[in-house]
Amino acid sequence: MPNFTKSFLKKQGLEDKPILLKKNIIDRNKQQHPDITKEQAIRILGNSLYNTEAVLKGKSKRPDYYNLITRIDDKHNDLVTVELSNEKDNYEIVHFFVIRNTTRKKYERDNDELKK
Prior knowledge:
By secondary structure, the protein is α+β, with helices and mostly antiparallel strands. The protein has a single domain (6-115), classed as YaeB-like fold, CATH 3.30.2310. Helices cover 39% and strands 27% of the residues. It has helices spanning 6-12, 23-32, 38-50, 101-115, and strands at residues 19-20, 54-57, 65-71, 76-83, 91-100. A five-stranded mixed β-sheet has the order 1-5-4-3-2, with helices on both faces. It is globular and about 35 Å long. This is Large polyvalent protein-associated domain-containing protein. Pfam families: LPD13. Residues 2-102 form the Large polyvalent protein-associated domain.
């Protein structure tokens, strides 16, 4: 995967390092989201990683997990969960899928709670 854009790295205060997508993540994603085609997976990854609209904190038990989200139509958004850890040599993709606007709003509320 190409690295994040320089503007994204600067805005997020991140180092420039590779983005890693492991085979086991691809396989797990196929199992959990069998409806996502290879072409859709490529779109989800490209949109969320390189045309990011929102960067939201993931779960509190995983402080380095972030959801990168981009709206794709009136009702849906592409989402990639990435581990953005300064302790590792790479940024690691953890999950990728499509969410509805209602789910995005929930993630935004959760993000606001985690910031408190």
